[in-house]
Design a protein that fits this description.
- With 376 residues, this protein is α/β, with parallel strands linked by helices.
- It has 2 domains: 51 residues, DNA polymerase, domain 1, CATH 1.10.150; 271 residues, Aldolase class I (TIM Barrel, Alpha-Beta Barrel), CATH 3.20.20.
- It has 12 helices and 12 strands.
- The strands form 2 sheets. The protein has a 10-stranded mixed sheet with strand order 1-2-3-4-7-8-9-10-11-12, with helices on one face.
- Helix 8 packs parallel to helix 10 and helix 10 packs across helix 11.
- The radius of gyration is 21 Å and the shape is globular.
- The two termini are 39 Å apart.
- The structure holds S-adenosyl-L-homocysteine.
- The site of S-adenosyl-L-homocysteine has 18 residues, from strand 8 and strand 10.
- Specifically methylates position 2 of adenine 2503 in 23S rRNA and position 2 of adenine 37 in tRNAs.
- Belongs to the radical SAM superfamily. RlmN family.
- Pfam families: Radical_SAM.
- Its EC number is 2.1.1.192.
Length: 376
């Protein structure tokens, strides 16, 4: 359960051509304790580490040329700490600008997407932890192309920093808070298959400035297909992030096909790991359930879901239904409204909190399960 050896086998569930390009080291990869050494290595005085951290994490400035409290010579030297990671290849918007999807092209050509969403009371960014995904869930567009590679910590943090800068600069329009408040690891990839980099990124995202961006841990959600050993390990990190588990059905027979990793870690083990997470953190676990017409939307499944959820998690659980979003080539679609309403009713009747996600960005292929980094 410790060490990285657990992460590797699940990475190659699909695809054999995993590229192992490693993005160059970036300031956002560095833990606070390593920053001083990194700047002194470049011949800068140690105190510059703190100034650069303030620029990056508090002022959201990622271009050393604009860090005007550094001398010109030191700005030039510190450029080595800010190698080119990726550039926005496209930005598409909908909901009158309140939903913005960015396609990032990394230095090695890897493509990932992130989605910034503005609401009356919050601004949320949905970020990617891997280019592609190896989990092969058949209803998810990301899963169809297999895994390209893990995102580095800095590539993950950069998605958040640039979203925070965009929100601050008014990109989401009027009536949306200018401060990025929430981060969800619900973009491309399986965050717990890129465990160490994701946990390090959570620290950069949540540590108080200038150590990090200062977003509350409770406002960060890590979503997983249910990599059981990694969930246990996350429980013991001492974090307060929300865990979401993509369950999609309460029975192993169907789940083996909807979430193929279920053949390794079945429903019961997923619930036990979620229980461990809830016990250690006191946090309510979110169960994600994409409702697919005539596939997983039967009343008996709602009842079994409620039974298992309350058995294992008591009140520390919340079921989040996601009306299935269309993906290219998929025959499946969302359940009709009355079926969905009945499903909600039965889960609630079973004593489990249940809501339907207000899914955003469907028309720009930015909604749950639609991120394929094809520029659409
Ligand atoms: N790999 C992680 C993170 C992705 S989160 C995980 O699976 O949890 C994206 C969420 O959207 C997951 O719950 C995923 O199962 C769900 N999803 C995937 N395809 C979908 C689709 N077509 N419609 C609705 N939700 C979908």
């Amino acid at each position: 359960m410790t060490g990285t050896e657990r992460e590797l086998p699940v990475l190659s569930l699909t695809g054999t051509g995993t590229r192992r390009t490693r993005p160059p080291r970036h300031f956002a990869d560095l833990a606070p304790d390593d920053r001083k050494a990194a700047v002194t290595e470049l011949g800068l005085p140690g105190f510059r580490a703190d100034q650069i951290a303030r620029q990056y994490f508090a002022r959201l400035e990622a271009d050393p040329a604009s860090m005007t409290d550094l001398s010109a010579a030191d700005r030039e030297k510190s450029a080595q700490l800010f190698p080119h990671l990726f550039e926005p290849a496209s930005v598409v918007e909908c909901d009158g600008g309140a939903t913005r999807k960015t396609l990032w092209r990394a230095a090695d050509g890897a493509l990932v997407e992130s989605v910034l969403m503005g609401y009356q009371d919050r601004a949320t960014v949905c970020i990617s932890s891997q280019a592609g995904c190896g989990m092969a869930c058949p209803f998810c567009a990301t899963g169809q192309g297999g895994l390209q590679r893990n995102m580095s910590t800095a590539e993950i943090v950069e998605q958040v920093r640039s979203a925070a800068a965009a929100a601050r600069d008014g990109a989401l329009g009027d009536g949306v808070p200018a401060r990025l408040s929430n981060v969800v690891f619900m973009g491309m990839g399986e965050p717990l298959a890129n465990y160490r980099r994701v946990v390090d990124a959570v620290h950069r995202i949540c540590d108080a400035p200038p150590a990090g961006l200062g977003i509350s841990q409770r406002s960060v959600t890590v979503s997983s297909v249910g990599l059981v050993p990694a969930i246990h390990r996350l429980a013991d990190e001492g974090l307060q992030v929300t865990l979401a588990v993509s369950l999609h059905t309460p029975d192993d027979e169907l789940r083996d096909t909807l979430v193929p990793v279920n053949t390794r870690w079945p429903v019961r083990e997923v619930f036990e790991a979620a229980r461990h997470y809830a016990d250690v953190t006191g946090r309510r676990v979110s169960i994600e359930y994409a409702l697919i017409r005539d596939v997983n939307d039967q009343p008996w499944r709602a009842e079994l879901l409620a039974k298992l959820a309350s058995q294992h998690l008591g009140r520390l659980v919340h079921v989040n239904l996601i009306p299935l979003n269309p993906t290219p080539g998929s025959k499946w679609d969302a359940s009709p409204a009355p079926v969905q309403a009945e499903f909600v009713r039965r889960v609630r009747n079973g004593g489990v909190a249940c809501t339907v996600r207000d899914t955003r960005g469907r028309e720009i292929a930015a909604a749950c399960g639609q991120l394929a980094a094809t520029g659409g």
